[in-house]
Amino acid sequence: MAMSSSSQRVGVVGYGHLGQYLVERILKDGAALGLTLAFVWNRNSDKLKGLVPDDLILSNLSSFAERRCNVIIEVCHPQIVKEFGPLFLSQSHFLVGSPSALSDPDLNQQLCQAAQQYGNTLYVPSGALWGGQDIQRLNDSGGLKALFIRMSKHPSCFRLTGDVLSEWTEGEGRRVLFKGSVAELCPLAPNNVNTMAAAAVAAGSLGFTGVQGEIVSDTALSDFHVVEVEVTGPGGFSVHTVRRNPAKLGAVTGSATYNSFWNSLLICKGHGGRVYLC
């Protein structure tokens, strides 16, 4: 069970751009908000030297329990969620920064069971998903009929498996890379479709196989990522949102998503053995 304390001890797993942002915010603003940095882990610990205090560097992730965290946030790769997610939940709340891992139904079940068994909460950040809580409410009321998400980015911003985008030329314009269920998209683009995975969590009645997604390469998008969400409800009800997230060329994560993750972290104070979109 997570410890009862006025101060939340936070472990950060991953030190890419998003991990660096979260660590810096906790060190700078955490004390005033009741957050204390317990540890930082990175696959290559050398990258932490001189940037993170030595006593906060965790060399072996398997020894995370020694740091007695209230919440652990993963911001590196879905494989870490698979290997350590249930273990994290046995000791603390767990904020999954790579919810594409939840497209694996067996892992999803293991995580939910661990949250229930130990009374901790599995948090899924909204990230770049606009209106996630509204989708969740419509789903919970039984009114959600369909959900479609399109993510459009400059080709340099995609990290795909296989050869779907092995070659591209500047100025080629718009190209649909894949369209299908989010369950199919997550293994193809595990680092790019976490927004879609968060939507699939919100739309629990549809799930990863029922929520439909599309990824689009567009060389015209040199300054933004674009996320379009189409929600269909009962009696002809529908909502279509378009979110333009400023992003540099080659950036997997848009700039507005960083603050979204920070706000999600502030919510992770326990909702009792469940999955919670934040």
Secondary structure topology:
Layout: E1 8-13, H1 17-33, E2 35-41, E3 71-74, H2 78-89, E4 93-96, H3 105-118, E5 122-124, H4 132-140, E6 146-153, E7 174-181, H5 182-188, H6 194-202, H7 207-210, E8 212-218, E9 224-232, E10 238-246, H8 255-267, E11 275-277
Parallel strand pairs: 1-2, 1-3, 3-4, 4-5, 5-11, 6-8
Antiparallel strand pairs: 6-9, 7-8, 9-10
Helix pairs in contact: 1-8, 2-3, 4-6
Explain what you see:
With 278 residues, this protein is an alpha/beta fold. The chain is 31% helix and 24% strand. The protein is built from 8 helices and 11 strands. It has a 6-stranded parallel beta sheet, with helices on both faces. Strands 7-8-6-9-10 form a 5-stranded mixed beta sheet. Strand 3, helix 2 and strand 4 form a beta-alpha-beta unit. The protein is globular. The N terminus is likely disordered.
* Radius of gyration of CA atoms, rounded to a whole number: 18 Å
- What's the arrangement of strands in the largest beta sheet? 2-1-3-4-5-11
Give the helix/strand class: alpha/beta
Return the average pLDDT rounded to an integer. Answer: 92
- Unreliable runs, pLDDT <50, ≥5 residues? 1-5
Q: Please trace the helix and strand order, writing H or E for each element.
A: EHEEHEHEHEEHHHEEEHE
Multimeric state: single chain
How far from one another are the termini? 20 Å
Strand residues, percent: 15-25%
Estimated helix fraction:
25-40%
Number of helices: 8
Shape: globular
Beta strand count:
11
Major beta sheet summary: 6 strands, parallel
